[in-house]
Amino acid sequence: MGTTQILFWFLTALALLGAIMVLVSKNPVHSVLWLIVVFFAISGHYILLNAQFLAIVNLIVYAGAIMVLFLFVIMLMNLNAETEPQKSIWMKFFGVATGGLLLSFFISFIVSSIDLKNKTAQLKEGDVGLIKNLGKVLFSDYVIPFEIASILFLSAMVGAVVIGKKD
Amino acid sequence: MDSLQLQALLPFIVLASASVVIILLIAARQSHTVIQITGFLMMCLVVLAMWYVRDVLPRAIMPLLVVDGMAAVFTGLIVFCVLIIGLFSFIYFEEREENPKEYYILIFLGTLGAAVLTISRHFISVFIGLELLSISLYALIAYLRNRNNAVEAGMKYLVLAAMSSAFLLFGMALIYMDTGSMDFDGIAKQLQTQGHSPALFVTGIGLMMVAVCFKLALVPFHLWAADVYQGAPVPVTNFIATVSKIGVFAVLVRFAQAVQLQSYHFAVIIISFVAIVSMVGGNLLAIKQQNIKRLLAYSSIAHLGYLLVAFLPGNAAGIEAGMFYLFAYSITLLAAFGIVTMLSGRQADADQLEAYRGLYWRNPLMGAILTVALLSLAGIPLTAGFIGKFAVLNAGVQQQLWLPVIVLVITSVIGLYYYLRIISTLFAETQVIFPKEKSLHPLFVAGTYGALLVLLILLLGAGIFPSAVIDGIKNFLCQGFRIINF
Amino acid sequence: MILVWMIVILLIGGLLCWLTARANEHAAKWVALVTMLIDAALICGVCFTQRVSSINTWIVDIKTQWIPAYGIGFHLAMDGLSMVMLLLTFFLGTLAVLCSWNEIKQRTGFYYFNLLCTLAGIAGVFVAMDLFLFYFFWEVMLVPMYFLIAIWGDTNRRYAAYKFFIFTQAGGLLMLIAILSLYFIHAAQSGVYSYDYFDLLNTTLQPSAARWIMMGFLVAFVIKLPMVPLHNWLPDAHSEAPTAGSLILAGLLLKTGAYGIMRFVLPLFPQAAEAIAWWAMLLAVIGIVYGAMLAFAQTDIKRLIAYTSVSHMGFVLLGIFSFNAVAMQGVVMQMITHGISTGALFVLAGMLKERLHTRDIESMGGLWSSLPAMGAVGMLFTMASLGLPMLGNFIAEFLVLMGAFTANVPLTVIATFGLVFSAIYSLRFVQKVFLGPSTFQKPLPDFSAREFVMMAALSIAIVWLGVYPQPVLDMVQHAVQAVVTK
Fold first, then answer.
1. Nearest chain B CA: its distance from C430 CA (Å)
2. Helices (DSSP H) in B240-363: which residue ranges?
3. How many other CB atoms sit within 10 Å of the CB of residue B20?
4. Is there a contact between A148 and B116 if contact means CB atoms under 8 Å apart?
């Protein structure tokens, strides 16, 4: 077992632990902090896949910006266990049942699909994720979707202004 | 990318620049009227651009887009709808307190999203197009924030659309995992070499269908439809009912055509099931409605179910029938919502059925147009809706899809009941006096009436002489089928 | 071309009525009357100039393309049967205009528009030789009829109008599926996509397919006819409709069902029709007896007449499914004489309602003394309706029973008892309305000149058909022969 393998398993375990803790934590602020751990672990995976750009972006955008926003919102709304509306036991039961069914459905499908081995990503290989290659692809082959994506942001901005501005 | 490819994209570039022009005009503090007229002219420019580039088609812009005959038909329909909706929007927003200017930016951006969907041949462009459409819609639905249901409707749409996008992405990822390609043709090629229907592909399709059904408001995923239709401003409701559905259906057709979706047994079963429950559910839920916007929401669920019956055969006849149906459905809903827009007052939309009592005797033209539109929705001859329903039945019977066809027939009889209910309200006696004369610019009132008349002529014209429309669709599709082979 | 003109004149006349009524409410009546007279003159002209012979059964025949993409043609043709039906249509149509002269005081323009459109649809049904076109006209006559009942009907009009529309539309859509199936089977056999009647006649069908497709046609026609388990819409529609509406419903719309069976069901599916003949005759006989019994129990004058229609239409069904020339000629006679006699009774009921403001026969009585002329005419038509010799209905019912006797003795015997029942309800009707103690003290006006002309025309027609029916029998002989020899 090489270093990358050890790292991979470590990061995977960390990500799962973090995800479970997000759900289990009573305090929403703790949930958010555990979510940051999950993002860090996943960024580690990206680095293992040789996708440094993605890893950095993931950290900056998700672990950085979005999580800070989350924290702000939670603190502003002063969420805690008491104010949370209680759901009935049946709601919880159905939620678990449908979620569990969907999960088992996916797992059974993915396990049953053949030659899955060849389709798992190979660690340390591939160079699409490097900034230089990414930039080249983005501004040559994918220039139109890149432009459309910029318009997407325009749309989001205008929408935010419309909803948020004072009359 | 060469100049011809750029030329093929010209209509879309004009569409994108339209929204930028509007932003600049707002920055220059122009009035609503100026913005409205500019928007109208820009849409006309898009139509002109489409006319100008028609010889360049079909042209693929590898790897993401393809501009072909089918795209031209769908985009043309979308742009036509937006032209009309734009005209209706003026009188609707002019009366209201809120500043209507940003509305036009969002409408054009949403239109661009729908138009991108029609030319997509790759998951990336599908996703970007869909998000562009959805994000514009979030803001558009909640545009009139001060009214009761608007924010609720916007939130509902936001949460559910985000959820459905997640399903879409997961489905795409699974298909990518299976085939190693996000390109429709690439997926098709890979599936051919594999020679069986792999579990991952099946799951992926299933998840993507969730998202598509959500956007088309088909039955197990229709819960948002009535509330959003009711809460959104009328022109936006109109936009959701026509433009966003045309775009999503276009991408569904293109994907299905590439991978031969209808040759997979499971896909046919899923689509038949969705079609049947949509037809039954939509029509049954509509019966009790007293709110015309909610009623049209449920009726459009049923109509998308009918549309799926045309989609089921997966052959050229089915696609033609589907396109014609979509055309008929769009102009019908444009006309119906156009009337709702005209009748809406300063305080609230004219969505209660009571507001329509005796409309025919108060305003014969509007009453007649709404009657024709409702008859078209019910599929009565002399209207476009009849030929559309006929084409759908034609496609279904040809492939001997007896169950969906029989359900279609039975449910359209159920549907008749609530359309007739509105129609008899239109012709009922009225004592109530409706004090409402708008003091708007006569040019726009004339323009709106003109648009309504055009729609009326189209509704009747396509019902009596449908040959022109059918032949047009056929010609464009011939161009479209050529492109599949490269 | 003359057939096209007849339909077009009606439509143009309808539009003119609509437009002129905006300027002058009375002008619409005159326009409608002139339109009907022109059409009546046209069909009489054809009748006198053209001779039906065995070599030339189709007197007029025009055919052009309509929607070539689906193989739909615009094919109108007229043989003896169509000609007789057209004569009846324009005769009763003129009377319908006349009898609404004073009854309809509001919205006359729209009223006559609907009336003439219904008549245009009916005329189209009798001459359409393209199955798609037939379905088209079938629906065209439906919508304006719905408006006639729903707007100008009596208190319970909306319920009656819904019921009428939904029943007929359900049957119509089943027929549409049957037409489509036939079209595709024919196309698979011959490679020609065509809805033309004469092309489709050459289709050879599997017995099971023929059975299902025939059921589709038959259900649509027997709903209209109506046959007993499906007659439910008829009493409501007849009693709630305005007088002219009842006249057209009873006199013409019911006949389209019978015409459809004779023109389409028997020639297209001879074996399948033969297979179910016994059941059809059984239901016909049940209809005769059941209709007569219900008629006896009614107190509403229009409902009473409506149930006699159910009974009389049983004879039509019985005659059709006996498959011989004598019965078939009797069927055509029954269609005409029932149209005239029942139409006359409905007109009388309308006149009584105009004078007494009630339809309840319990509150009438002893009217003969105050309205002697009306009493005499009422007596004449009740006698016609119960099949008194010298009057048209006797010839018709006699021929039907004579023909049916060769096909099925026991059922025919029971049907003959139906005649006895009809005597009972007819006499009760006369007894309750015209004889007995007088309940109305104030003097009532007898026939006006307009009413006198109408009643005179109807009386002459019924007596003439009873004394000298040969011209009609000659006219339809070849058409009937063609149906039977199949």
1. 37
2. 245-259, 265-287, 292-311, 316-343, 359-362
3. 14
4. yes
Q: Which two structure tokens, joined as six digits, stand for C24?
A: 């002058």
Crossing angle of the two packed helices B316-343 and B292-311, in degrees rounded to 10: 170
Cis peptide before B233 (omega within 30 of 0): no
Neighbours of C274 (CB within 10 A): 12
Task: Name the residue facing B413 among C69, C147, C170 (closest C-beta).
Answer: C170
pLDDT average per 10 residues of sequence, chain B (486 residues): 82 91 87 87 90 80 84 91 90 76 89 93 92 92 83 91 92 86 88 75 88 91 91 92 94 90 87 94 91 93 94 87 93 93 79 84 88 92 90 88 90 89 84 59 82 92 87 76 41
Picking from B279, B283, B413 by the largest number of C CB atoms within 10 A of its own CB, the best residue to mutate is B413
Check: CB of residue B337 under 8 Å from CB of residue B368: no
Using the CB atoms, write b or e for A64-94: b if 16+ within 10 Å. eeebeebeeebeeeeeeeeeeeeeeeeeeee
Distance CA C194, CA C130 (A): 9
Task: Give the start-to-end residue ranges of the domains of chain A.
Answer: 3-80+90-129, 130-167
Q: Which domain holds residue B125?
A: 3-483
Q: How crowded is residue B210: how many other Cβ atoms within 10 Å of its Cβ?
A: 19
Mean pLDDT of A52-64: 88
CB contact under 8 A, B178 and A119: yes
- Decide if B143 contacts B98 (C-beta within 8 A): yes
- Cβ of B394 within 8 Å of Cβ of C70? The answer is yes
C-beta separation of C320 from C383 below 8 A: no
Judged on CB neighbours under 10 Å (0-12, 13-18, 19+), B432 is exposed
Name, in order, each residue with C-beta under 8 angstroms of B461's C-beta and a sequence gap of 6 or more: B384, B468
Pick the CATH number of A3-80+90-129 from 1.20.120.1200, 3.40.50.150, 1.10.10.10, 2.130.10.10: 1.20.120.1200
Yes or no: say if B215 and B225 are a contact pair by the CB < 8 Å rule: no
User: Would you give the DSSP letter of residue B220?
Assistant: G
Q: Cα separation of B453 and C128, whole Å?
A: 31
Contact B102 A160 (CB under 8 A): no
Strand partners, B65: B61, B120
Which residues in chain C come in under a pLDDT of 70?
52-56, 440-441, 486
How far apart (Å, rounded) are the C-alpha atoms in residues B303 and C337? 45
The dihedral sign for the CA sequence C180, C182, C188, C191? negative
Which of C142, C154, C176 is best to mutate for the B interface (most B CBs within 10 A)? Answer: C176
Q: How many CB atoms lie within 10 A of CB C44?
A: 13
Residues in chain B: 486
Non-local (6+) Cβ contacts of A162 within 8 A are B102, B103, B106, B139, B143
Q: How far apart are CA A137 and CA C117, in angstroms?
A: 65
**Residues contacting residue B403 through CB under 8 Å, at least 6 positions apart:** B272, B276
Q: Of how many residues is chain C composed?
A: 486
From CA B264, how far away is CA C483, in angstroms rounded?
47
First-to-last alpha carbon distance for chain C, in angstroms, is 29
Q: ∠ CA(A39), CA(A41), CA(A47), 5° rounding?
A: 105
For residues C464-478, b (16+ Cβ closer than 10 Å) or e, as one string?
ebbeebeebbebbbb
Beta bridge partners of C263: none
Of B97, B139, B198, the CB nearest to A158: B139
Question: Which is more confident, C234 or A137?
Answer: C234
Residue, of B267 and A119, whose pLDDT is higher: B267
* B398 shares contact with chain C (CB less than 8 Å): yes
Q: Do you find a cis peptide bond into B63, omega within 30 degrees of 0?
A: yes
CA–CA gap between residue B274 and residue B282 (Å, rounded) = 11
Query: Neighbouring chains of B at 3+ CB pairs within 8 Å?
Result: A, C
Total structural domains in chain B? Answer: 1
